[in-house]
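Hey, I'm writing a tutorial for new members on how sequence and structure tokens pair up, and I'd like a real worked example in the thread rather than a made-up one. If someone can provide the structure for the chain below, I'll link this post from the tutorial.
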Amino acid sequence: DFGRSSELAFVVEPSDDIAVQEQPLILYCQVEGIQPITITWRKNGVMILDSENAFMLANGSLYVSRFQRVRGDGSSDEGEYDCMAQNHYGLLVSRKAKIQAATMSDFHIHPQNAVVEEGGVARFQCQIHGLPEPVILWHKNSMPVNTDNERYTLLPKGVLQITGLRAEDSGIFHCVATNIANVKFSREARLTVSGSHSSVYKDPMILVGPENLTLTVHQTAVLECIATGNPRPIVSWSRLDGRPIGVEGIQVLGTGNLMISDLTVQHSGIYVCAANKPGTRVRRTAQGSLVVQAPAEFVQHPQSISRPVGTTAIFTCVAQGEPPPQITWLRNGQILETSDHIKLKNNNSTLSIYGINQADEAIYQCLAENSAGSTQASARLTVLWADGLPSPPQGVRAETVSATTIQVSWEKPLQNTKEIIGYVLHIRKAADPVEMEYQEAVSKSTFQQLVTDLEPSTSYSFYIKAYTSRGASKASEVTVVSTLGEVPAMPSLFIKVINSTTVQAMWEPSIKLGQHKGFKLYYRKVHLSQYTGPVLLASNVTAYNITHLDASVVYEVKLLAYNQHGDGNSTVRFVSLRETVERTVLNPPCDCMKDEQNNKTSTTGIIIGIHIGVTCIIFCILFLMFGYRGRLLMCKNVQEQLSTPQIPRSQRSTTGLVLNGATRRDRDDRDLNGKQLDMNELERLFPASPSQEQREKGITSAHSPSVPHDETQISTLPVDEFSIIEEQPDPLPENPRGSTPAAPAPNHGPANEG
């Protein structure tokens, strides 16, 4: 019975049709499946009873003997028809077939007289509505227009274009509209071709551009574009979005009309017609939109399934189309209503049935429908049921233990208990959908279960099933009980200093607070025992400013959440405003006008200071350069002086003075009458007496010519560390060869004298 051939399914479904007045109409319906199968028909959802005018044939098709758009009693044979097939396993409904009467209205646009110069373009148009779409042909002088003439273009919507007009094109034109309902003729219009072809330049101009069209896939679209100008403009087409138009199914009619055959959804877009002057960039454009609709079709069909009692059945139905189709589910031909255990998800693409039982066994249909058409697919749910399964567990009770714990107890089933291998407790928040349910398994010898980790002040539903190796029992009665309430949890608290007298208390809402009614805020000076408060705040408030505070003391701020069960634990924070006051004192507010004036004055002073500084730097560089150069010259003379053997004062013709590490000599050493250095003057200039250490390390005095001298190294001394040592006139004693001179040797390092 579960093979494919056993499925109740349509082989042929009724299709949309256009019926002719007073003519017979047949709507086909063919079904396969396990017999017996009963077929019935509906029109606009109402059952059709056999009558003289409409009755069902032996093969299940519906026959309408004389179709009438409007009957004498005001009824009509127009409408939406569907057939229903039913067997032992369920009921199936076909797609809806839309039946319309063939009609034709009068012409609402007739061709108009036209006078066009030779070589120009003429355009005539007829427009008429009808079902099916009328076919429009053109006659010239009561004869059909020769469509083999390439200068004559007939468009499907009743347009005649004539390009490169000649004198023989003059005549009387009219159009003829034909469909299964009628044949109608338009009024006549005269075309007059005047003058000869003009050579005067004319800018390109589009006489008629493309219209906005809405069509269905596989139909043909004709986008009209007719242009004039001298020289004759070149007509080209493009898409506004820049995508290529392509070449497959594309054809140009006449001098610029675009025809697209076998339309697809990808052809939808805005098309631009451009009339270009040859050899230039001069152009004129016109645009029109093309919308291609696609009837609903299935990407994924629902599949028939078999499931044991108590399990979950899921059907998936995915459809596509343009515009996107709407999906509706039927159960045995009736609109499926959702409930606690029947849910629709993903825009009705997924049907879930939880905890199935034998009443859920049926044929489920997915109907996909949009403005371009509808389709249907079906699947059967078979509920498996084994004989000898346990009856439902008895006496299910639930008792509240705490705010997070409930104890559930039950009694064993009344029948077929020998094969029970265990029980399953089904738990769900009463407010949650069925798919949020979870289970806990219990051994066959246990008849109570402590359910923990529940939420306070929340209602929960419980039911039990007994399981055997062959399946589960039916569900027990459902019991609902609520957990006890508890006070809210501690809120998080943050303190922000606004100014020297104000702080802002901030906190974050949290699910851990539970069902609280609001908050209580307290604050006090830490050295006082009495709080200010409570300040009662609503549950949606998350901040509060505390003002008029004393900046010299520390404050304690306390926040707690409360509900009908009492106050929760509080969060405490301490805050000091002293640092804010100190920052204000250290950084007083600025006087902007005064600062602006000071800034102007400061800027002038900075510029002057920069000039002075640069000048000083230049003078310093020059001073250092010339001073360093002079020091080098003086050092050279000192080296020459000190490296020469000295003679007694009485024997010298020239007296030398060591000053700042240099020797000052007479300009001419050979001048015996030169002036001697006045020692009194030196003593006046350098009054400080040399220390004993300096005497011991002093400059070497005169040596006996016969006594060899030691080589002396020169140390450059700063001027403030230099002193003059006057030689004694006593005769020098003879020193042994190689002994040190009587005068102290020069110091090899700087002396700390001054």
